Amino acid sequence: AVYKSSDGKGYVFRLNATGYKSGLVIMCGIDTDGKITGTKCIQSSETNGAEGKLSPMYVGKTEGDYSSVEIISGSTLTSKGYKNAMESAFDAFEILTGGDGE
Question: What is the pTM of this model?
């Protein structure tokens, strides 16, 4: 799902991902400059809580550098699921702003 901010300064994406288990639901805000303004895991079946540590690591990242966020040791699948969700957010953002999502 996607929500456009009422002030027109960005979008919020509701993303579903699979980490260690399915059911990882993440909210991701991206401003009109293409920077992540915030992320928050709103639903999780993960066992070690790594998703809470991942959220702040993405703030300020762009499509060109979000993939540089380090994988948290012991939480490889959660980290990859989170990163896949960010990729989906940027693909959707590109489509909404006139790109082709690739």
Answer: 0.90
